[in-house]
Design goal:
Two copies of one chain form a homodimer.
Chain A (H helix, E strand, L loop, with lengths): L12 H11 L7 H14 L3 E5 L2 H11 L7 E5 L4 H8 L4 E5 L21 E7 L8 H10 L4 E4 L7 E4 L2 E4 L6 E5 L12 E5 L5 H8 L5 H5 L19 H11 L2 H20 L22 E4 L3 H13 L27 H9 E4 L7 H17 L1
Parallel strand pairs in A: 2-3, 2-4, 4-5, 5-8
Antiparallel strand pairs in A: 1-9, 6-7, 8-9, 10-11
Helix pairs in contact in A: 1-8, 2-8, 3-4, 3-6, 9-12
Chain lengths: 379, 379
């Protein structure tokens, strides 16, 4: 059996968890939480990081920090995970769904401007598969309309936007950005997330929202002499054991990334020579690095994709499709404004993700490729 | 140094975490999550349990499940942790604060009925220090007005309401109940919580809200053939490593409870003989068991309490006060209806919690008592 994903363990997770327990502080904001936050800030040039229990929770913090409220509109791609929209729906926002690009599942940067109204309070971009949205034109539109950008960087750790011979980490463009450390991600802690606060003016309030609406963080720094309820918020902090696990992954990120990118490139090499394999290969635009988060194929349609999934499963390989478009979901279809979003549906119907995880071998990739070639010989 | 709290480790936490990792499923709803939920259901007669990342999150799930919305009123004690109110504030509710009893920090059951209006959508009770609110008269009022009761049982694990020669676990009265496994609690996982769903009609929707508004739980049980966005929700599931930690605690609950109750009784024994110690001892009403969660003294006023805290700290003992009344908080004071809540302020000003944790020794308790007696000899 070749599973779709297998969470990678770097080797020091239990050692660090054990140390966190020995330190006697395993609730939130302990030693490893601070270590993870500091290392992330230093590694990627993020202004301030706060670990959260999930990427969903990081997005909720972003929605609260921007005071998103009923009547507000938020522009979000339709081809994304539920949480991207859910965090803003919880604040009562109306979601204005944007379509994907024709050549890539990421949001169509050129199609955003005509969705902006007087009520637009945020634009949320998703760096699908860790591949950058074209941030310069996008930020130009957002800045011109003075609308804050939030990056849903759930899949985008250690990926960069390239421009003018520079590179800038994904997650460092938005006023706020959210990362995921779910076990399906490159770097993981089972469940977990992180909010990045790039606007210094939002840091103090972010800490309060993180700590159940209390000024507890200031209290522990000795800035106030007792702490109390000063704002909205929730319990967004993960246990320090979760942070300890994550720290063992963060310090091995170079090794993890090398392995994943090698595997990704090997898939490309195999499929580029597969003449009769009727698939389209993923595009890495010239303005983005590839962080090896996901390898996907585009099939000709939903039926052939379904048959290929069944064929692979019969041979012990788990390949999976991805999102159902959110504008067509049971929950949102009647709230959507009715616009057709053809590329969102295109990627929903035709995209197939292949197994990609640290322990996957070149031999297993060879086998997966052979199974897919055989499928196309008969179909 | 005698800290106020020291998280207890039972010995098998790392073994179970290691096993969870070896199972290859460390995101939410894995092996140990199911074990913890099943054991809790069996131990306390709860209909259905769902682990959450915190008690705050369990309360948020309760507020979402009851469709609490702007315009609704929720009755909540003022002398409680911020989260009790915050979870309902996040749904837009107006909080109607209730006072404590004169003899105990718990909500005054007799003062609730006159707070009920046409807009009241929930009554939230807090079993302070693990001591039961008088549930029979409270439920009679709530049922007569057809208002659902939610138990904030954060501190109330393995505590019972006693009536008619029966005992019934706290957390099994409310339509929904919330427990905390924060490191300050009897049974802990650093951060953590649990929602109890006692109304079978709410279980299916609770699972959806837990899983980011998707019907993923039904999908994995084979009840639907794909899963999608069907409702509101959030990412309320803890990583299975958190559940593994918690399971190591849950299976040792008898040992933990015996130790804590012994320590609690020893404090009582010491202070009952302390003639010149000008304190009031905690009351355990005849309708409640004592789960040894907290030992507190009532001082004569805020000044003497502050001087006693300083005296103890100077001798290496950390004793701490508890909540500031929520109706007087920076966040809520202007939203409060202006009623005076004298007993809430009474307990806020005069209550002092003494160290109580598994590793505390009788000798250390003797020392703490002696320090307090000495303080009163000079003050």
């Amino acid at each position: 059996m070749i599973p779709f994903n297998k969470p990678h363990i770097t080797g020091r997770e239990l050692e660090f968890i054990s140390d966190a327990v020995a330190c006697g502080h395993i609730s939130g904001n302990g030693k490893y939480t601070k270590l993870c936050q500091k290392l992330s800030e230093e590694s990627w040039g993020f202004h301030k990081c706060l670990l959260t229990t999930s990427c969903t929770d990081a997005l909720e913090m972003a929605a609260i920090l921007l005071d998103i409220a009923p009547g507000d509109e938020v522009i979000i791609p339709s081809f994304t995970f539920v949480s991207t929209a859910l965090a803003f729906v919880r604040q009562g926002a109306k979601i204005v769904f944007a379509d994907s690009r024709s050549d890539h599942p990421g949001i169509d940067e050129l199609a955003i401007e005509h969705l902006i109204t007087q009520k637009t309070r945020a634009i949320v971009v998703v760096h699908y598969a860790g591949i950058a949205v074209d941030m310069n034109p996008l930020m130009e539109v957002a800045n011109r309309h003075k609308i804050p950008v939030i990056e849903d960087a759930a899949q985008a750790i250690e990926s960069y936007y390239l421009y003018d011979n520079q590179k800038k980490a994904l997650g460092s463009f938005g006023v706020l950005s959210a990362f995921s450390f779910h076990e399906t991600k490159n770097i993981q802690s089972g469940e977990g997330g992180m909010l990045v606060i790039n606007d210094p003016k939002l840091v103090q309030r972010a800490e309060i929202i993180w700590e159940k609406g209390t000024n507890r963080a200031e209290f522990f720094r000795g800035e106030v002499n007792k702490y109390g309820w000063v704002d909205v918020g929730s319990s967004f902090l993960p246990a320090d054991t979760i942070a300890a696990f994550l720290y063992a992954q963060l310090i091995e990120i170079k090794d993890i990334q090398k392995k994943r990118i090698d595997l990704w490139n090997n898939y490309m090499r195999l499929f580029e020579k597969g003449d009769n394999v009727r698939i389209q290969l993923p595009l890495i635009p010239e303005y983005s690095t590839n962080n090896g988060h996901m390898f996907y194929l585009m099939l000709e349609g939903i039926d052939i994709r379904q048959r290929l999934i069944v064929h692979l499963k019969a041979h012990g390989v788990l390949a999976v499709f991805h999102y159902l478009p959110l504008h067509l979901s049971t929950y949102y279809k009647d709230k959507h404004d009715g616009r057709s979003l053809p590329y969102s549906e295109h990627f929903a119907d035709k995209l197939l993700r292949l197994p990609l995880y640290y322990e996957l071998t070149f031999e297993q990739q060879e086998l997966i490729f052979t199974l897919i070639r055989e499928f196309f010989e008969k179909n």
